[in-house]
Amino acid sequence: MKSFLIDRYTKRGELRLGEGPEPELRDNDVMVEIHAAGVNPLDNKIRDGEFKLILPYRLPLALGNDVAGIVVRVGAKVRQFKAGDAVYARPAQDRIGTFAEYIAIDEADLAMKPSNLTMEEAASIPLVALTAWQALVERANVQKGHKVLILAGSGGVGTIAIQLAKHLGAHVATTASTANIALVKSLGADVVIDYKNDDFERVLQGYDVVLNSLEKETLEKSLRVLKPGGKLISISGPPDPDFARQNGSGWLLQLVMRLLSFGIRRQSKRRRISYSFLFMTANGRQLGKITSLIEAGVIRPVLDRVFPFERTNEALDYVETGRAKGKVVVTVK
């Protein structure tokens, strides 16, 4: 089996194309022949070693966090899937490796592929859609009439989060460059702040929820947009103590995360705002609900570029530029 591997953590290092055996198939697993794999900023961060403290992978590691493909075998206890099914998933964080020809995934993390999407389109969905779902539905409990700010609206998470927030009945604001204003408006954004010309924290106020995917400075600006009782959810950090406990981190790592997030948690508390860090988790049940929204035409994928498998390193480099509109995908088969 061919796969793109990390041999050691290196900032902007190249993955190695290697040969190896197919992954082990456990009783609750589904073996998927990979047709397409989504490329995410998370992949670059793992490669660079940014998550090596909280995600202690054993190297060499096959990279990749989104998959769409065909079931070829199932474990003895699998009941929901069979050979020939078209499926998609975000594998569990300790079992990633979609830049490869095959992957074994727990059936609880898998869902049937939306019937109206190609393999490439489907591969663009799981990680970003589950992130949006877990932020807006599970954590923020967005309701009709809520005001929601989604930062970086033209990115992978942003393009899906705008559509989901609108479906939930929210008034949606977002930030984008001049070139991407038409795109985010077409996805349903009610207010678009051109970040090259305006400061969003001076224009917006009284918001219920902010979904942040940008740097520390933007995170702190977000506090000025939220009303007391509002929720600031960040997918770019810093990790907080709740995440450390949920991740099963030891006491030392819990202390480190407490210190890293101390400043933003203190500022949030002063303004009576709740701050939380979200590192999305694999969830086939939630992905099944997202499938229904896609098939109903509520959510559509936004694909920027599709690369062939052998150019996976180029795809990672392109994602790292931060210029992609929506998602970048690698075609494996």
Automatic annotation (TrEMBL):
PROSITE patterns named in the record: QOR_ZETA_CRYSTAL
GO molecular function: oxidoreductase activity; zinc ion binding
SUPFAM superfamilies assigned to the protein according to its UniProt record, in alphabetical order: GroES-like, NAD(P)-binding Rossmann-fold domains
Keyword field: Oxidoreductase, Plasmid
Membrane-spanning ranges: none
The UniProt record lists the keyword Oxidoreductase: yes
Protein name: Zinc-type alcohol dehydrogenase-like protein
